[in-house]
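Ticket #4471: structure output looks truncated?

Reporter: J.K.
Steps to reproduce: submitted the chain below (361 residues) through the standard prediction queue, then opened the result file.
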Amino acid sequence: MKIIAFILSFIIYPVFTFAQRNVNEFLQLQSPPQTYYVYPVTDVITIDGKDNETSWSKVPWTDSFKDIEGSNKPAPAFETQVKMLWDKENLYLFAKLQEPHIKGYLKQKDTIIYHDNDFEIFLKPNLLSPEYIEIEINALNTVMDLLMTKPYRFGGRANLNWDTKDLESAVYHAGSINNPQDKDQFWTVEMKIPVKSLKYFGEGNQIKPNEVWKINFSRVQWHYDNSETSYNKIKASNGNTLPEENWVWSPIGLVNMHYPERWGHIKFIDTANQQTIDEQFLAIEKVTWNIFYLQQIYKNDQKRYATSIQELSKLYPEIMNERKNYDIVFSNSNNFYRIEIKSKTQPKLKTTIDSRGNIYF
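Returned output as attached by the reporter:
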């Protein structure tokens, strides 16, 4: 029954998540995505759920996770942080999840792991392609992984038959598991994700120095009541299970991880030739998606798409400021549009987005 419900949720998801309905929802999507610089390994990493290696001791943690909706929501009850490393063939990640009661029940691979408390990774190695990968893992080291053809709200589908080939993962418990009679400290996740399992033919099987990926991490945390012998999910007065908490590295602004444009960015650093993430690229990407979101709101209100930035400014006057930095050209037909945004200072820096959410750089 869980599988059926899961599949049905894919079918109905786009119906109510495709469009931003009003400017307030648009404003929730304005926080800047996180960034992290991934440094190369300096010794052999053993995937055992522990960060004992010298390489791990030399790299920083990410910022602590926040509520998926952002800083306007209460801070998570428990700390979660991640750190990353790379070599030419692999991305390594280590996550530490503070948890006074470690629990996990699902043991079969590709079970829908978020029905347990879990840790999730969302990976988009190719910024020019709509596909991305999702990996979920619980405290028993049970993994679910899938390939998304594109976000659900654009008609994307989840391929659960896809596997992250040669993925290695391990968990460690600072405490016990499924034992409500004691108090635990944390559990950890360590992963080695081969590049060859993430890229398509012709894209290469190695990470290149200064390559940029989109990535995000999510922690699903259910509300449990514990007796002396068991943990039970808490139910609301209507008899339904209380909704889970969603804590993430780079907040989305709404409860939906499948907004890849809202994920954070990582850059693979070559210590001999270190380059920062291009702020101009991040800026034009944000403007592009803001125009897309406003077009959805305008269509809901006016029953047609706007044909100029001036029309969109009726919803959000600040969008007019972008004319100082970009040439913005609308190409519309009855139920379709394509918009080109070109930097005035860097003519080679440009994007194109259409009404189906296809973006090109």
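Triage note (M.O.): checked the attachment and the full token line is present. The CA atoms of residues 89 and 203 lie 13 Å apart.
Status: closed, working as intended.
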